[in-house]
Amino acid sequence: MHILGGYSSSEWFDGPDYFGDNDCFLFSLVPKFKIYRVDFQAGGKNYLYFNSRRGGIKKVSSKVRVGIGFGGSKSTKCRLWVDEEMETDCYVHLEDDTYRKGYLTESHISKLNVSSIEKALLTNELL
User: Which DSSP helix (H) or strand (E) runs through 27?
Assistant: First the structure.
């Protein structure tokens, strides 16, 4: 079992464009704790991608992917990708143009079998 994901301090936007800032990072909790922060020397700014729309008022190009991704660029695949159905095209890569290089899973694993997704809201306010 692996537990991995990404963090963003920015508000999430639903659409075909990347968003986020330098506070975003990728992480692995299980089997080993690791954090991959933004690689400023690589120059990428593709922090986070979230798109749940296939069409709508503005017809979205068939090249626009539906799912959640971290890293990558407009011309390459995301570093961490979960497709809309969480089963057909989920993967993780060693590197991208935004985050520091390193394995989120063991080196032989690139295709992911996603069983659940969690979105947590962290706040500085005391309840």
Answer: strand 25-30
